[in-house]
Amino acid sequence: MAKKLAFDKVLFTTVVLLMFFGLVMVYSASAALSRDHSFLGHFLVKQSLAAGLGLVLMGWLMHVDYRRLRDPAVIYTLLGLCLVLLVGVLFSPQLNATRRWFFLAGISIQPSELAKLALIPFLAYQIEKKEERVNQLSFLVPAGFFTALTASLILLEPDMGTAVLLCATFFLMIFMAGLSWRYILAALAVVPPLLGALVMMEPYRRQRLFAFLDPEKDPLGSGFQALQSLIAVGSGGVFGLGPGKSVQKLFFLPHPESDFIFSIVAEELGMIGALAVVAAFVVLAWRGLAAGAKAPDAFGRYLGWGLTGVLVIQALLNVSVTVALLPTKGIPLPFISYGGSSLVVTLCICGVLLNLSQHA
Fold first, then answer.
1. What's the whole-number mean pLDDT along residues 213-233?
2. pLDDT tens sequence across 224-268
3. Which of 87, 170, 217, 220 is positioned for an S-S bond with 147, CB 3.0–4.6 A?
4. What's the CA angle centered on 109, arms 153 and 315, to 5 degrees?
5. Mode of pairing for the β-strands spanning 107-109 and 102-104
6. Dihedral pair phi/psi, residue 181, rounded to 5°
7. What is the pLDDT of residues 38-53, one digit of tens each?
8. How confident is the model at residue 218 (pLDDT cuts 50, 70, 90)?
9. Alpha carbons 174 and 208: distance in angstroms, whole number
10. 8 A C-beta contact, residue 129 and residue 177
């Protein structure tokens, strides 16, 4: 039995600071939108409730040995429940032309967020069982099948951003497990045309791609979000306009409290504030990967790397969209963006990482 140590205080501090910073930014970014509700703190209160629940679950997961997640009954129950929810959500009421949420008593639940907590332990379990066969079909077929199935159901919502995120995490995990370069080169040959085909299949995706290539061609239409985001980032300069003083959140920039909250961070706190957020995610990546590397078994190692990877890749995708390095995607910035399901799942992931950090 591995010796139990104190949890990683650097990781814990980074997580808590990011979460509280996110609450502050949600309050600031949603100020104008809150006027349509009964009180100014509408978004802040809902996000604070999610943060409270997330902290409770994070504390619980810090004290429940991560090895319990290795139990096949737990692994397959989580994965089966996730797949059932992903199928069920396709029959839920539409919101913004998508079917991504279950609505219950004023609470929304997003199954695609829960998929992170189901798929990554499953992949870690498969890698541990077949670590010496990671380049054989006996591993690649079941691991790839369930990843593709999960991503396909999310793609039907439609939510291409989260589907790509889960597939990228899958490739990261099997790469770190020792995937042969012949498979990596084959993936590099197949994935870009596949992504291109998925983009061209849907008119709105094609529109986003063309807007990304030339946003100024339709500045009031398809290029509006990207241009307004760049205006927000550029307006902040080095030191920012000051907390709460964003102009773009006044109904210029769509979804300033969620998808484009990093633009508001850059506008209000400037390049220094934006880089501080990026630095916090670098610290998160460093400590999360270290927690995985120091785990006493292969399951813990790949679990830590996969959970860290999904958070860091998601943050990278969100920031890249904000500064127009990628086409517009509805993917939140972990800890910072408004969204209860995202925040709760993110804090649960951090609870597992902090649990891993107690073992060496």
1. 89
2. 999 999 999 999 999 999 999 999 999 899 889 999 999 999 999
3. 170
4. 75
5. antiparallel
6. -65, -25
7. 667 889 999 999 999 9
8. confident
9. 31
10. no
Buried b (16+ CB within 10 A) or exposed e, 210-229: ebbeebeeeeeebbbbbbbb
Distance of alpha carbon 327 from alpha carbon 315, whole angstroms = 15
- The burial of 132, by beta-carbon neighbours within 10 Å (0-12 exposed, 13-18 middle, 19 or more buried), is given as exposed
| Closest by CA position to 259, among listed 192, 153, 351, 159 | 159
pTM: 0.94
| Structure tokens, 39 | 């009180």
How far is Cα 52 from Cα 50, in angstroms, rounded to an integer?
5
Q: b/e map of 26-57 (b: 16 or more CB within 10 Å)?
A: bbbbbbebbeeeeeebbbbebbeebbeebbeb
Token readout for 91 is: 């029959």
Instruction: For residue 111, give both structure tokens.
Output: 């199954």
Contact 148/99 with Cβ under 8 angstroms?
no
